[in-house]
């Protein structure tokens, strides 16, 4: 069998959650195009509510898309749903565990569910690899949270899928365990498994992934190799206190200003593209008299906004894979 170039290919993906009794309809994905090359360790980064889980759930087959095309390992999720899903191992965000099974039984049941013949099962190998061998016969309710999470990863791998999706794998996981998980994920990636990881920690994506896409408000606002993205994320905030406090942030040509308490406002700029001097010139040109300025490191939300703004105001050559 020839292997596909792309482990996952997503085109024009839209998801609209219908209106509820109290909530309006919500477009969680607004036409996402995304390609995960085979063999990649790919990070999908975005703040809470950006649409990451919606995207993962569509891939996993638990959420129905509104529009668009998705193929997993060359198989279209509409035309070959079972084959597409068989290529995927998914580790969900919430810890779930079958309380009545031991880890060994849990893996055997899962393998049975995927129709893996007894002779091809990897139960011992997986228990060993995820540090659960000495707990193989314990009841799952006796396992710590970290052990349950490792068991979930083992379960996702019983059918030897070529693509592994990890949804916020280290939420609530201590530093030591995080290191162990990362080491294991790196190992299976080196062995050829394509990994898609969602996180809202830049640090995590940066440490693990060779390529990172950023999603914000249902749109991909950046998609680049990790070093390239880090260069682009090199941003600073300038906080301006005007002579006369402003109730709303002023229109500043070429920059997006955001209002701060006390009549001040902030501007996030990319250090590679602008200087503080240029920012201040634009502020003065907008008719604002400056009383005081301060610079600070932006948080991720500022960075996402700056990227969104930059991508809308000009075409971005790094946006899609060449
Ligand atoms: N079942 C649903 N019904 C209505 N709206 C939903 C539903 N699920 C998610 N949403 C909305 O869609 C948007 C995207 O949510 P999603 O859970 O995909 O984001 P996320 O990036 O995964 O965030 P988190 O990191 O918090 O999981 C949010 O505004 C959310 O409120």
From TrEMBL:
This is ABC transporter ATP-binding protein. Keywords: ATP-binding, Nucleotide-binding, Transport. Pfam families: ABC_tran. It comes from the Bacteria. Residues 8-242 form the ABC transporter domain. It comes from Peiella sedimenti. GO terms for molecular function: ATP binding. The keyword Nucleotide-binding applies. InterPro entries: AAA+_ATPase (IPR003593), ABC_transporter-like_ATP-bd (IPR003439), ABC_transporter-like_CS (IPR017871), ABC_transporter_ATP-binding (IPR050763), P-loop_NTPase (IPR027417).
